[in-house]
Design goal:
The chain is mainly β. It has two domains: 47-196, Methylamine Dehydrogenase, Chain H; 199-298, no CATH class. Helices cover 10% and strands 37% of the residues. The strands form five sheets. Strands 13, 14, 15, 16 and 17 form a five-stranded antiparallel β-sheet that branches. Strands 1-2-3-4 form a four-stranded antiparallel β-sheet, with no helix packed on it. The protein has a four-stranded antiparallel β-sheet with strand order 5-6-7-8, with no helix packed on it. β14 (216-225) and β15 (230-232) form a beta hairpin. It is globular.
Length: 298
């Protein structure tokens, strides 16, 4: 009796296994039919790492559905539907490398672009100056500073759209160029140097006091790229402040690192502009995140 039951079990198991194999074979054949994949399409899910470094964003404060994306090695992109779709806006210009982008707070159709990414690695691309659009990015005009090569920040005076500040890091592989903090008072027709440190040191970042557009903070960045290394900082790296619209500048030192200073990022509080923040690279191990509660005095 036990042998009979075992034989029935074994036969059932074998038949069931054969049925599974047959069904699996049929499923494999169905999967391999082209009609199975007719409803599928490939789509891009983002740029490659080397070309897809998103460097800056500019949001239309009057319409949050509209914003621009600046790519370090991929031009300028614009969305009008909150990021559902993007359109390239900079394909016909001479520079594909972007360092920063800014929308005029008084006119959202006016957009400023600083060409040349603000990075210092070997696979870096340079730009050819500052661009301005007066029709929401449909067309662009190069308005100067063509030898700046790498632009870190652009700020527009909210009280006067013709006054624009451009922080230029300058050429990476050599000295000179349009390096430092540049200012225009006529919407980009002419430029003057507001803060010039040296032929090896440019300006990487700037912030403006929202209470007074004549009060600005700027970070100086000394660096040089060689094939075998990056000299990322030096004794000329520092934070500067002006209270007279850039006529004079004072170097801020109290409470900040000493020695060779690298790149510095700045931020100022819109709630209480007495609060100023700095993230600082320093070679002597005292770099980090710093805060001032007295307008940079300490």
């Amino acid at each position: 009796m036990k042998r009979l039951l075992f034989s029935i079990f074994l036969l059932t198991f074998v038949n069931f296994h054969l049925i599974l194999i047959s069904a699996e074979k049929e499923n494999v054949e169905d999967i391999n039919k082209s009609s199975t994949y007719s409803g599928l399409k490939f789509r891009s899910i983002g740029p490659a790492i080397a070309s897809g470094r998103v460097i800056d964003l500019a949001v239309n404060q009057n319409n949050y559905n509209e914003f621009y994306v600046a790519v370090a090695s991929g031009g300028v992109w614009k969305t009008t539907n909150h990021g559902t779709t993007f359109s390239p806006m900079f394909d016909n210009e001479n520079s594909y490398s972007i360092g920063c982008i800014t929308i005029d707070p008084n006119n959202s159709n006016v957009v400023w672009v600083g060409s040349g990414e603000k990075n210092s690695q070997r696979s870096v691309s340079y730009g050819d100056g500052v661009y301005k659009s007066e029709d929401g990015g449909k067309s662009w005009k190069n308005v100067g500073l063509k030898s700046s090569e790498h632009i870190g920040k652009i700020i527009i005076d909210p009280n006067n759209s013709d006054i624009v500040w451009v922080a230029a890091q300058g050429p990476l592989w050599k000295d000179g160029g349009d390096r430092g903090l540049n200012k225009t008072t006529d919407g980009g027709k002419t430029w003057e140097k507001s803060l010039e440190i040296s032929e090896n040191t440019g300006v990487s970042d700037i912030v403006m006091d929202p209470r007074d557009s004549k009060v600005l903070y700027a970070s100086a960045y000394q660096r040089r790229r060689h094939v075998w290394t990056l000299i990322n900082g030096g004794p000329e790296g520092a934070i500067y402040k002006t209270v007279d619209g850039g006529k004079t500048w004072d170097k801020i030192t109290k409470g900040l690192p000493t020695g060779d200073i690298g790149r510095i990022g700045l931020a100022i509080s819109n709630v209480d502009p007495d609060y100023v923040y700095a993230i600082i690279e320093a070679t002597e191990g005292n770099g980090g995140f710093y805060k001032s509660t007295d307008r940079g005095a300490s």
